[in-house]
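hey m, so remember when u said the tokens were messed up on ur end? i reran from scratch. heres the input so u can diff it against urs
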Amino acid sequence: MNDFSGRVILLTGASGGLGAAVNDAFLSAGANVVAVARSFDATEDKPRCIEVAADLTSTEGVEKAVAAALEATGKIDALVHVMGGFAGGAPVHETDEATWDTMMNLNLRAAFLVTRAVLRPMLDVGYGRIVAIGSRVGVEPAKGLAAYGASKAGLNALIQTIALEVKGKDITANVVMPSTIDTPANRGAMPKADFSKWVTPESIADQILRLCSPEAGEISGTLIPMYGRS
């Protein structure tokens, strides 16, 4: 297992089903985690985990989260950007502007703001790992998911551009693209689905840990599919 002792991970979307699994995986590997979400339920304290409530679709929220990480730990070794949202179901000609704007804000604007913010301290020290959670729909469009798919395709382009811009600086940027993730929320939304075909949060977390390790310095600009058995 990867040893992340002394490493600092800034984790967004930390209160969701995938975010919680990623948080636990990093803590088990010895990392210090700055966990960010819009809000947190009351939970027991976890050693080496700092929870920050912030809206990452705003510059102020991102600055709050990054400042909390740097003030508490002095560095950010890796950004794991799990935060995102899903909405869809209507064809393009019936998609309202509110749905479009929501998807762009949650899935693309927030990613731009938080990657821009963490790149500055990473460039200062000459080291960093960035992993964002994309979606299969970002490379395989689906009917009724124009806003969601376009936002995830934009995320892919953003991360791959970052990878090009930081090439040779020991900073990497990659996207992990799951299909449907086996979380309680998804099971509740699709109770008749075959859950055995879905990808598990734990397997995604394992992949993220590999990409965030110091040994993964040659992997950058990749879009990694994790489609389970679907």
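this time it looks ok to me. The radius of gyration is 17 Å. if urs says something different then somethings off w ur setup not the seq
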